[in-house]
Amino acid sequence: MGQLLLVRHGQASFGADDYDQLSALGQKQSVRLGEYWQQMAAEQAGAEPLKFDAVFMGSLKRHRQTWEGIAQGAQLNNAPEVWPELNEYDSHALIETIHPEPLAKPDTPEMYKHHFRLLRTALQKWMAGETQPKGMTSYAEFAAGIHAVLKHVRENHQGRVLIVSSGGPISTAVGQVLQAPAETSIELNLRIRNTALTEFVFSPSRLILLSYNNLPHLDQAAYRNWVTFA
After folding, report:
1. Average pLDDT score over residue span 46-58
2. Which has the higher per-residue pLDDT, 13 or 62?
3. At a CB cut-off of 8 Å and minimum separation 6, what does 81 contact?
């Protein structure tokens, strides 16, 4: 069976004017993941050098920057295929559907919690078809895009495949494979960590979830303060 690894992007610039930009820590997280993979491959006796048969990513800057860090750390030279279906939903547009007034920047723990309480409610309404955020597709179309990417991987690839994306698409993929209610993906998404790994095995006919939201590359004491969620 093939192996499909999904990686959430490194820490972005939450609260900044341009969220779609890795922070300095997000860049280090990405390079560290690549270094970890390279080290694991080197330590396996007789193992071939680390390689991916295919790499996919969304079209956001933080996806590209995360892939570049991974490639640097792991000494990879794949040319990723860009699939906009792997892009995150627009949290600002979602929140505006239930809170039209501008929100203050979330620069305190309470404001941070307030932001995500609103986002959870906005996601629920979008998934139920009760709202249509500006500039976004319906939730059904969003979910269909994720399904199409997974179907493409199953039917056209084998070996090891990498996807670099965001929490929304990754949690949606997990929910689809587990045949869970759509709202399950909200809770999965709000707990996914930066550069976390989600692993499936796959055949042409099915995907099987092996693990979700793992950070083996940050498990050593020297890296544990690198763990972030935004």
Report:
1. 86
2. 62
3. 54, 55, 56, 57
DSSP 8-state class, residue 223: G
Lookup: tokens for 109: 């723990």
pLDDT value for 106: 79
CB 226 within 8 A of CB 29: yes
Residue pair 52/76 in contact by the 8 Å Cβ criterion: yes
CB-based contacts of 221: which residues, under 8 Å, 6+ apart?
Answer: none
Residue 42 domain boundaries: 2-89+136-226
SS3 content of the chain, % helix, strand, coil (to 5): 45, 15, 40
Residue 105: inside a domain: no
The owner of tokens 């763990």 is 227
pLDDT per position as a tens digit, 65-124: 999 999 999 999 999 999 999 999 999 999 999 999 988 877 888 888 999 999 999 999
H-only helix segments in 100-193: 109-127, 139-156, 167-178, 184-189
> Distance between CA atoms of 75 and 61, rounded to whole angstroms?
20
Q: Which residue reads 């609103």 in tokens?
A: 118
| Per-residue model confidence (pLDDT) at position 30 | 98
- The span from the CA of 193 to the CA of 11, in Å, is 9
Place of tokens 């399950």: 184
Measured distance CA(56)–CA(164) in Å, rounded = 6
Cα-based torsion angle of the residue sequence 156, 161, 167, 168 in order, rounded to the nearest 10 degrees: 0
Does residue 99 lie within any of the structural domains?
A: no
* CATH code of the domain in which 206 resides: 3.40.50.1240
In a domain? residue 163: yes
